[in-house]
Amino acid sequence: MAAKKKNDDKLLAQNKKASHDYFIEETFEAGMVLTGTEIKSLRSGRANISDAFATIRNGEMFIHNMHISPFEQGNIHNPSDPTRTRKLLLHKEQIHKLLGLSKREGYAIVPLKIYVRNGYAKLLIGLGKGKKQFDKRETAAKRDAQRDIQRVLREKQKVAR
């Protein structure tokens, strides 16, 4: 019997602003085409996806403005542009689905996080519908109310002991 491979995901970068600005309706896992020593730089946590966005051109998906700092100990094959456009690897059906869904008003393809799974760098992208200002305030109010409820419950548990 073959040993089962561990499926431990190591989080490398996260876009916390995405959940604040968008309602994430659906997520997809995509591979990335990286060159040179970009994977080494990613593994050392030198990536930023807060300003990144994804587009679909000619049936292929690309990520723009994703910043991966050059690896210091790299060789001459290091990419010179840290924010270059990178190709994402998705199934054709997934790309067509995302293309159809993102064409609707107010929807965007947003990168959520970068992680390593089984030795490969993966990008979790989500289909997001833009939040209005009152939606953002409502979300913040719900989060504050939930935090207050948890605080009261913790205090009651301390008194019960």
UniProtKB/TrEMBL annotation:
- Quote the cellular component terms of the Gene Ontology held in the record: cytosol
Q: Which domain of life is it from?
A: Bacteria
**Region span, Disordered:** 135-161
Alphabetically, the GO molecular function entries are:
RNA binding
- Identify the keywords attached in UniProt to this record, alphabetized: Cytoplasm, RNA-binding
Q: Which CDD domains does this UniProt record tie to the protein? A: SmpB
InterPro entries, sorted: SmpB (IPR023620), SsrA-bd_prot (IPR000037), SsrA-bd_prot_CS (IPR020081)
What are the subcellular locations of this protein?
Cytoplasm
Q: Name one GO biological process term.
A: trans-translation
What protein family is recorded?
A: Belongs to the SmpB family.
Cross-referenced PANTHER family: SSRA-BINDING PROTEIN, TMRNA-BINDING COMPONENT OF TRANS-TRANSLATION TAGGING COMPLEX
What role does it play?
Answer: Required for rescue of stalled ribosomes mediated by trans-translation. Binds to transfer-messenger RNA (tmRNA), required for stable association of tmRNA with ribosomes. tmRNA and SmpB together mimic tRNA shape, replacing the anticodon stem-loop with SmpB. tmRNA is encoded by the ssrA gene; the 2 termini fold to resemble tRNA(Ala) and it encodes a 'tag peptide', a short internal open reading frame. During trans-translation Ala-aminoacylated tmRNA acts like a tRNA, entering the A-site of stalled ribosomes, displacing the stalled mRNA.
Put simply, this protein is called: SsrA-binding protein
Task: State the species of origin.
Answer: Paenibacillus nanensis
* Taxonomic lineage: Bacteria, Bacillati, Bacillota, Bacilli, Bacillales
Query: What gene codes for this chain?
Result: smpB
